[in-house]
Amino acid sequence: xDGAKNESAEARESYKDxxxxxxxxxxxxxxxxxxxKWMDGWETRRKRIDGHDWAIIALSDPCELRSIHLDTAFFxxxxxxxxxxxxxxxxDDPKPIQDxxxxxxxxxTDVELEKARELKSEDWDEIIxxxxxxxxxxxxxxxxxxxxxxxxxxxVRLNIYPDGGxxxxxxxxxESTGRQLLLRSECVAFSNAHYGSPxxxxxxxxxxxxxxxxxxxRKTERPWKIDLDDSGFIKAYGEEWAILRLETDVxxxxxxxxxxxxxxxxxxxVKIEAKLSNDEKLHSSDDSWITVLPKTKLVANRSxxxxxxxxxxxxxxxxxxxxxxxxxxxLARIRIFGSKCRH
Length: 343
Known about the structure:
This protein is mostly beta strands. It has 2 domains: about 20-175, Galactose-binding domain-like (Jelly Rolls); about 180-340, Jelly Rolls, CATH 2.60.120.260. Helices cover about 0% and strands about 35% of the residues. It has one helix at about 110-115; strands at about 30-35, 35, 40-45, 55-70, 80-90, 125-130, 140-145, 150-160, 165, 170-175, 180, 185-190, 215, 240-260, 270-275, 290-295, 320-325, 330, 335-340. A hairpin with a 2-residue loop joins strand 1 and strand 2 (about 35).
């Protein structure tokens, strides 16, 4: 199933706009435009400034990405020599940054680039690392890449290094039937909420600032010198935790941890556990919690601060999560993705 269509794009620089990434097969045209040879695809100008070119593309619907097909048809002396693809599942559909359709020969303005930077797309998941492309001759134009760990995304970022052209980008995936983002929860218990309550962690709206997140006090028993273990984690001298009751019973299949605004006070790591329980009072030390996100290093001030995607999907329904941070600090939001599953 072709689960993605080019709905909008933000091209860094272009001869031919990225919105020409269409379903029809590329065609050859002998004509020239005022900017150069007419090409059926996205072509950027020859790079004479620092950086590389990129485009952000909104999928028609969120879907579980399975494979990426690139076609460099007819781009024989001007194809992009390398590319990579990043992706994200954005909770709030961003407003259009620019109308790139039929604006050949223009580049993104500084204002448009600043709006694009707000998406922090350079931090999105890398689903295809930097990979070489071949020329657009008939025998070398087709490129097919399977995605090793399919996940649900709403937007992709196509990077080309450093410039050049691509005739077609086709994104294949399957609909995420029944998958939902849990937006309501109740805080059952927590260890510390000195600066902000964990009650807001599953809020749908983006965090407005550090005041709009869960933040604990600093550990008073912290050592005089911080040491790291062999895995790069801070050697534990304590932790903080919060237990949240979810709005419904779900099987969790993905988690995002938002550290936006928390720059000098981001936790070193986070761990998330889950369970199904109807008890009014739950204990953090209960050994019946199952791990859905093993202890994972965090990066400060990111829409998804997880340094690795190692979520363990739950095969049985759960209705509570326990968030543990080490040693202390703050989180803006936690996004729990799940679907209904049978008891």
